[in-house]
Amino acid sequence: MRLPKFEHLQPGSLDEALDLLAEHGERAKIIAGGTELLVSMKLGLLAPDYLVNLKEIPELDFISDDDGLRIGALTKVRTLIDSEPIQTDFPVLAQAAELVAAPPLQIMATLGGNLCINTRCFYYNQSRFWREARPRCYKTGGDTCHVVKGGNRCFATYQGDMAPALMALDATVKIARKGAERV
């Protein structure tokens, strides 16, 4: 399967990335590690016109244990696994990181990407041709769930491994958009 055509945008700072996302709205998606996004694009689940690449924004790639643990969204999963402060003071976080994908993907996958991963469904997460051969499901605006016969809602499940560990640690996540941020 081939990737759909898109324009790659490379901001140099978080502010520039937020400007690009505001400018292009729903037509843009964020990419960093790309381990989930590129597969979704190849399956035809997503077809953004623009990919805003955060990978080169250094202010989003960090682990700091000054005044409490702080982790940037671009921190690689492998970095979390290997971090001494995390292994020592927050072992549940290191253990959760070890559950993320296979080791070769852990060096590309990011904390932010794992937190923002889309839900998975045996029917939805297939090729476009597979999906077109069946009635639309709740996740695509239809009125059925193929996983649970007679189900009256979507039963797709969240697949991120890091969120439960962060919740157990009573962590907060800062989300930014142009002109605002939310915790």
How would you characterize this protein structure?
The chain has 183 residues and is α/β, with parallel strands linked by helices. The chain has one domain: Uridine Diphospho-n-acetylenolpyruvylglucosamine Reductase, domain 2 (2-Layer Sandwich). It is 32% helix and 11% strand. The protein is built from nine helices and seven strands. The protein has helices spanning 14-24, 37-42, 77-82, 84-89, 91-98, 103-106, 111-115, 128-132, 162-168; strands at 7-9, 28-31, 50-53, 63-64, 70-71, 175-177, 180-182. The strands form three sheets. A three-stranded parallel beta sheet has the order 1-3-2, covered by helices on one side. The protein has a two-stranded antiparallel sheet with strand order 4-5. A two-stranded antiparallel sheet has the order 6-7. Strand 2 (28-31), helix 2 (37-42) and strand 3 (50-53) form a beta-alpha-beta unit. The longest helix is centred in the first third of the chain and has 11 residues, at 14-24. It starts with 6 loop residues before the first strand and ends with a strand. The mean pLDDT is 91.
